[in-house]
Amino acid sequence: LHSQGEMEQLLTYFVSPKLAEYKCDTNEAISLKLVRFPEDVDDDSTTFHPEYSHQVFGDDEVAFGYKGLQIQLFYAAGNLSTLFKVKYTSKVTETFDCVEADDVEGKIREIIPAGFTCNTDDFISLLEKEANFKPFGTLLHTYTVHSEEAGELTYQIHKADVTCPGFREYHERLQTFLMWFIETASFIDADDDRWDFFLVFEKYNKDGETLYATVGYMTVYNYYVYPDKTRPRVSQMLILPPFQGEGHGAQLLEAVHRFYCSLPKVQDITAEDPSENYVKLRDYVLVKLCQGLPSFAADKLHLGFSADMIKEAQDKLKINKKHARRVYEILRLRATDMSDEDKAREYRLEVKKRLFGPYRKNQRELAKMRKCLRPEELVSHMSQMDTQTQHEELEKSYQDVVEDYRRIIERLASQA
Ligand SMILES: CC(C)(COP(=O)(O)OP(=O)(O)OC[C@H]1O[C@@H](n2cnc3c(N)ncnc32)[C@H](O)[C@@H]1OP(=O)(O)O)[C@@H](O)C(=O)NCCC(=O)NCCS
């Protein structure tokens, strides 16, 4: 619901074409950058933009009241010291246009921690401090990535917690990125000592010195399981956009898995409200980890999803039953000759059996409803659960699942 004032403002804004020019798409207006060298500040090729800004600017992702709005949030590549600037070519005024511009600066200030600068020269001098920036916490894993342009680059994954000096403030700067790249992001209370933080850094050279740039991170909450176990739950994972699609997400998730596997008190590893991208990444990593286990050997796969698989995945890799089931389906697809009609049908039935679970539940609900609904209500429910539609939906889910599985199999083959 809008107040009277807001309604009037909205009406003026939609009615007047002149005022419509003062509307800016906030995903375009916000420019983000990770700065290593002073010349990066004016180099547009290193700028990237949010995927989402609805949590800050509302569902329309629009800021009203400015022409040529530019919101710059530039970060020093390592410790993420921040330069924050708002620029525009013109702004509506209450006296002339009878409307008020959105408080863009105030909205951004609500999500970025204090301590940023608004002065580019100050920001450039802060870059000199980057030589003193060292990754927080303990080193878990080092790996290299080969790229055509940059040659061989080295990355490190560290485990940190809030007791690491300077980490709390660094994390407050880092988590601002969540708002722009995770649809339903929320900030966490890092002071709760059950949070573990896993950070990825790239080593790079600047004037003969080795410096560290922030690549991405993951937060994990250690839930307690009665009587003496924990269940680490992945909460947020973000690989910063300039580094996406280079394998860092897979490296990070695998390193985190291996870390928790080494702790006897860990029961299994879960995730909070996982996104589709996260599930794809997890499937890939878990298949990579499970493919060498005896219970998942090629000759066992066609016998079905077994208790041995569940136990081995749980005991050796802290993988829960639901995730192990997907691993089994992927490995079985890889081992199945899908040009053989009988084998292909067997496989399809096997996956559909799992996918059919929720539909069967629907049918049970329908049966219950029949007993207590009035006829007209029943008709509306029946149409929602029409068998033909269910059949089509099931086929579509199956096709989608198999397509994702095939991509994972291709990725595994390309890494082999
Ligand atoms: C989801 C996310 C964590 C994945 O991280 P990532 O580092 O991009 O992941 P990877 O590079 O390991 O894999 C991503 C894709 O890149 C591909 N890829 C990996 N290395 C590659 C390479 N060297 N060359 C080409 N493609 C490559 C993978 O095959 C994979 O493709 P697929 O999705 O079709 O399977 C990251 O994209 C992200 O942070 N997204 C925004 C936030 C988010 O969604 N977080 C998850 C939920 S909280």
TrEMBL record:
Active site feature: 272 (proton donor/acceptor)
InterPro entries xrefs: Acyl_CoA_acyltransferase, HAT1_C, Hat1_N, Hat1_N_sf, Hist_AcTrfase_B-typ_cat-su, Hist_AcTrfase_HAT1_C
Positions of region (Interaction with histone H4 N-terminus): 59-61, 221-223
Subcellular location(s) of the protein: Mitochondrion; Nucleus matrix
Keyword Transferase assigned: yes
Main location: mitochondrion
One GO BP: subtelomeric heterochromatin formation
Similarity-based family: Belongs to the HAT1 family.
Protein name: Histone acetyltransferase type B catalytic subunit
Biological source species: Oreochromis niloticus
Taxonomic path: Eukaryota, Metazoa, Chordata, Craniata, Vertebrata
